[in-house]
Known about the structure:
By secondary structure, the chain is of the alpha/beta class. It has one domain: 3-Layer(aba) Sandwich (Rossmann fold), CATH 3.40.50. Helices cover 47% and strands 14% of the residues. It has a seven-stranded parallel beta sheet with strand order 3-2-1-4-5-6-7, with helices on both faces. It is globular, with a radius of gyration of 18 Å. The two termini are 26 Å apart. 40% of the residues are buried. Keywords: Oxidoreductase. It holds the Pfam family adh_short.
Amino acid sequence: MSQLENKTIIVTGASQGLGKCIVENILNNYTHTNVVLVARNEELLKSFYNSLPKDKQSRSLIIVGDVTDSNTTIKTIDETLNKFGKIDSVIFNAGIIEPIGHLNEPNYDIDIMKKLFDINYFSIVEFINKLLTTIPKKSPINLIFVSSGASTRGIDGWLAYGSSKAAVNQLCKQLNDEMFPIVKCISIAPGVVNTSMQKTIREKFSDKMTTKSHERFINLHKNNELLDGMVVGKVYGRLAVEGIPENVCGEYVRWNEL
């Protein structure tokens, strides 16, 4: 068995979209690598797991739970260590995009914005804290954050989402400055991937964004310019298994720059 492939990877938000594509890439391309799938939607998660061949099921572990629940975090770490004996990488993919809107609207939902930050940012902070205080202090680990182009530029109505991803970029930089090389991390924007989130943006938010901003997403879909999740997911899977190159540790990059 190759030492390169003898890895255990945790992927959050793994039941659908980019997270599911990342898991499939790892299981397909690294035949001795284990994957832990974490997601809130039990039906989708179990359906995905049950669709896998037996040999891939034996290298997989599913954890049903909300990433903002401390019990999910503890369960994920403990059950991963109990089943596979180690944790080499974590891909933080779970996230939501709502609320979409503007701060000059009287009904802008600050409580939903706080929930978004709990999912997109604070759940990651807590997971890393629990992880780094559980595993041996000299065990190197790769942390891979799914960021967004919205973290570095304004997209109309996307204050909450963009701000949370900018916070993730800063978390990545801070961890690198403080903990490299025991912790290696990278924040990667996946581009506009053909997922259910994109469908939601097209169908639900026309009245929450400017016409110009919303039409961009309509046209990307109409012109078949949305990215294939399996193509993008391969980048995340490769870095999780093969490791993050030192020259990009702590950096925010686009998926096609790697």
